[in-house]
UniProtKB/TrEMBL annotation:
Localisation: Cytoplasm
Lineage: Bacteria, Pseudomonadati, Bacteroidota, Bacteroidia, Bacteroidales
Protein name, as recorded: Imidazolonepropionase
Residues that bind 4-imidazolone-5-propanoate: R91, Y154, H187, E255, S331
HAMAP family linked to this entry: HutI
Length: 414
């Protein structure tokens, strides 16, 4: 991937989000902003962050491109830490059914939902999935996303799970947006294993997971822990097997009913527990204590017309909260960062500062990369966004509008 030399001068706000691990609770309000700030990136890595007045003489950097950020805010690139962006087909009919009153789970239970996308993804060729994925990545880059997590889970057999992960590997090599891949073989039980969930998990654990590991196709492993999908015992078994193989853990937890997924994530020291609309007080306390990132997906709650996860309460309880789009063809067919900011602030009562921390340093922590990305710190990757406006406060305020003027990836301007 290209590594650029770049100086961004005189930003009205350099929103550094400085940290090398997740910001928890009240720390999320402290974005460590430098006014009239300058950043220097050399060979793709940040080498100077500070006041413009104190920055080294520019004539010492003859090979650096210079961008004047007067009147603009500069932030770390956004980290979308939960998506399912490689999929075949669409589910626009199901959206209409849901607007008529059908529930997400009832559509899935009668063979639609995830099963519908599984059939289309099994049918799609490698190249079809890759081209669709590339377009989605192009759109992400325009919205300021510099790292995205992507899950498999629309194959539910070895061939297609590997195909999805290989598509992400190829795209990661070709596209500026970094992709963190997650193996999610346990997304639902396919028809051929209906009623035999444990046998299906055995197949995933014994036949698929080790091959994913051997081929180094995913860093993380995830499961849909939910009533009528995989219960706590099954999730513990699958995630423990994944951990033993060296995967970092993530879990779709307590989305539709309170099952104890948050507690399980804390017990297993997962990177993150995601969704959490129905997480119990106890589960939230466990997440805060264990430092497992609570990843909230307000676009999904909006799309499914559910109430929102208790973001305010989680931060007040000391959790590290991350925000992500959950881009997928069913429950959240959007990768809109502007919508995400607006929903998080308006409906989950996050402050603009907390929302920024949630989509930068805490997103980075949710993919296990807080030491490399998520803040503007010396030594980190030169991944930044330049806004059209002088303050980060415009992100939730300019509702639904993309105010990212430029996205910088490894010091290269896009
Ligand atoms: O995070 N809840 C389970 N998985 C996805 C949805 C996948 C789909 O509907 O295709 C989610 O919302
Ligand atoms: Fe998801």
């Amino acid at each position: 991937m290209r590594q650029g030399n770049l100086i961004i001068k005189n930003a009205s706000q350099l929103v550094t989000c400085s940290a090398f691990s997740a910001k928890k609770g009240r720390e999320m309000s402290d974005l460590q902003i430098i006014e009239d700030g300058t950043v220097i990136i050399t060979d793709g890595v940040i080498t100077y962050v500070g006041k413009d007045a104190d920055c080294p003489v520019l004539s010492d950097f003859p090979n650096h491109k210079i961008v004047d950020a007067t009147g603009k805010a500069v932030l770390p690139g956004f980290v979308d830490s939960h998506t399912h962006f490689i999929f075949g087909g669409y589910r626009e009919e199901e959206f209409s059914w849901r607007m008529r009153g059908d529930s997400y789970m009832s559509i899935m239970e009668r063979g639609g939902g995830i099963h519908n996308t599984m059939t289309a993804t099994r049918k799609a060729t490698f190249d079809e999935l890759k081209e669709a994925g590339r377009k989605r990545l192009d759109s992400m880059l325009k919205l300021g996303i510099t790292t995205v997590e992507g899950k498999s889970g629309y194959g539910m057999n070895k061939e297609t799970e590997l195909k999805q992960l290989e598509v992400m590997k190829a795209l990661n090599e070709e596209h500026p947006v970094d992709i963190v891949s997650t193996f999610m073989g346990a997304h639902a039980t396919p028809a051929e294993y209906k009623g035999r969930e444990d046998a299906f998990l055995d197949y995933m654990i014994k036949e698929v997971m080790p091959e994913v590991r051997e081929k180094d196709l995913a860093e993380c492993c995830d499961i849909f822990c939910e009533k009528n999908v995989f219960d706590i015992g099954q999730s513990r078994r699958y995630l423990t097997a994944a951990r033993n193989l060296g995967f970092k853990l993530k879990i779709h937890a307590d989305e539709i009913v309170t099952l104890g997924g948050a507690e399980l994530a804390a017990e297993l020291k997962a990177l993150s527990a995601d969704h959490l609309l129905q997480a119990s007080d106890n589960g939230i306390e466990d997440l805060a204590e264990s430092g497992v990132v609570a990843t909230l997906l307000p676009c999904t709650a909006f799309s499914l017309k559910e109430h929102y996860a208790r973001g305010r309460y989680m931060i007040d309880s000391g959790c590290a909260v991350a925000l992500a789009t959950d881009l997928n063809p069913g429950s959240s067919f959007t990768n809109s960062i502007p919508l995400l900011f607006a929903l998080a602030c308006i409906y989950m009562q996050l402050s603009p500062e907390e929302a920024v921390a949630a989509l930068t340093i805490n997103g980075a922590a949710a993919v296990g990369r807080a030491d490399k990305i998520g803040s503007i710190d010396v030594g980190k990757q030169g991944d930044l966004v330049i806004l059209e406006f002088p303050s980060y406060k415009f992100l939730p305020y300019h509702i639904g509008m993309n105010i990212v003027e430029k996205t910088i990836k490894n010091g290269v301007v896009y």
